[in-house]
C-alpha cells in the first residue's frame, strides 16, 4: 500500500497534477480541498456564519445535517452533498474563499479527518491539500510540496475560470490567491507548511506534462 501526500498553496496545480499522476500510476486520487469547499457551500446555503465564535453551531449543523460522500467514476472524484453532485459548484471563486474560512475551524477538520484517513488506509492513494503530509497522512511514503510564483498560480487559476465560462478578472484572482495564501499559512489549526521530510517542487517554469513527469519521478524514486 502506498500513500502519496501532495501539499502546496492555492493555484499551484496540485489537483490537476495529482489527478493525472494517479491515473497513470493506477492509484486513487483524493482531492481534500473539495471536501472543505463542500462544507463551505453547505454553510453558505444554510445561512451558517463561518467563524471561530460560531464553531459550536457549525459542528452541530454538519454532524446532524451534512452527509458528504466521495465517489470515483472513471478515475474522477465526484463529491456529493446530501445526495447532490456539487463537484462543479464547489469550484466557483466564492466557494474557494469559504473553503479557506472553514478549514480554520477545528471541528470541521476533525469532521473530515476520519473520511480522508479511511480512504488512504484502504487504497493506494495520491492525496492533495494543505496539511496532508503534516497532519492527515504524516506517515505517507512520499511527500511532495508543490508551489509556483503567485502571479503564475493566479494566471493558471484565471485561465481555468475563463475556460469554464466563468467571468473573472486577473487582478481579483491574484488578490484572492494572496489572501488565501496568508490565511492558510497563518491559521492556528493545521496551517499550510512544508513537512520536514517533503520534497519541494517549484513548477513556475514547468508546463503541465513536465510537472506530471517530475512528480511521477519523485514517487517512483520514493516508493
Summary, kept brief:
It contains 9 helices and 8 strands. With 223 residues, it is of the alpha/beta class.
Can you give a write-up of this model?
With 223 residues, this protein is an alpha/beta fold. The protein has a single domain, classed as P-loop containing nucleotide triphosphate hydrolases (Rossmann fold, 3-Layer(aba) Sandwich). The protein contains nine helices and eight strands. The strands form two sheets. It has a five-stranded parallel beta sheet with strand order 2-6-1-7-8, with helices on both faces. A three-stranded antiparallel beta sheet has the order 3-4-5, with helices on one face. Strand 4 (76-81) and strand 5 form a beta hairpin. The longest helix is centred in the middle third of the chain and has 17 residues, at 106-122. The mean pLDDT is 91.
What is the fold's blueprint, element by element?
Layout: E1 3-7, H1 14-25, E2 28-31, H2 32-45, H3 55-65, E3 68-73, E4 76-81, E5 84-85, H4 93-102, H5 106-122, E6 125-129, H6 132-136, E7 142-147, H7 150-163, H8 170-186, E8 199-202, H9 208-222
Parallel strand pairs: 1-6, 1-7, 2-6, 7-8
Antiparallel strand pairs: 3-4, 4-5
Helix pairs in contact: 1-9, 2-4, 2-5, 3-5, 4-8, 7-8
Provide keyphrases for this structure:
Rossmann fold, three-stranded antiparallel sheet, five-stranded parallel sheet, single chain, alpha/beta, about 220 residues, about 50% helix
What would you report as the Rg, rounded to the nearest angstrom?
A: 16 Å
CATH class: Alpha Beta
| Percent of sequence in beta strands | 15-25%
Q: Can you list the strand order of the major beta sheet? A: 2-6-1-7-8
Order of helices and strands: EHEHHEEEHHEHEHHEH
Biggest sheet layout: 5 strands, parallel
CATH topology descriptor: Rossmann fold
Tell me which CATH architecture applies here.
3-Layer(aba) Sandwich
Give the tally of β-strands. Answer: 8
User: Total helix count?
Assistant: 9
Shape: globular
- Report the CATH superfamily: P-loop containing nucleotide triphosphate hydrolases
> Given the helix and strand composition, which structural class is it?
alpha/beta
Question: N-to-C terminal Cα separation, in Å?
Answer: 10 Å
Amino acid at each position: 500500500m502506498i500513500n502519496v501526500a501532495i501539499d502546496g498553496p492555492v493555484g499551484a496545480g496540485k489537483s490537476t497534477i495529482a489527478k493525472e499522476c494517479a491515473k497513470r500510476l493506477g492509484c486513487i486520487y483524493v482531492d481534500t480541498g473539495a471536501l472543505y469547499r463542500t462544507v463551505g457551500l453547505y454553510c453558505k446555503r444554510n445561512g451558517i456564519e463561518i467563524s471561530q465564535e460560531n464553531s459550536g453551531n457549525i459542528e452541530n449543523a454538519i454532524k446532524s445535517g451534512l452527509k458528504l460522500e466521495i465517489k470515483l467514476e472513471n478515475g474522477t472524484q465526484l463529491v456529493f452533498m446530501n445526495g447532490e453532485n456539487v463537484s462543479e459548484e464547489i469550484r466557483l471563486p466564492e466557494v474557494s474563499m469559504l473553503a479557506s474560512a472553514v478549514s480554520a475551524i477545528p471541528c470541521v477538520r476533525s469532521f473530515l479527518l476520519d473520511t480522508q484517513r479511511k480512504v488512504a488506509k484502504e487504497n493506494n492513494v495520491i492525496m492533495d491539500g494543505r496539511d496532508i503530509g503534516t497532519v492527515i497522512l504524516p506517515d505517507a511514503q512520499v511527500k511532495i510540496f508543490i508551489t509556483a510564483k503567485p502571479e503564475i498560480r493566479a494566471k493558471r487559476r484565471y485561465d481555468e475560470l475563463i475556460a469554464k465560462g466563468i467571468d473573472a478578472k486577473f487582478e481579483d484572482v491574484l488578490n484572492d490567491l494572496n489572501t488565501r495564501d496568508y490565511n492558510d499559512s497563518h491559521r492556528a489549526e493545521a496551517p499550510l507548511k512544508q513537512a520536514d521530510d517533503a520534497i519541494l517542487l517549484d513548477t513556475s517554469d514547468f508546463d503541465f506534462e513536465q510537472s506530471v513527469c517530475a512528480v511521477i519521478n519523485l514517487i517512483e524514486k520514493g516508493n
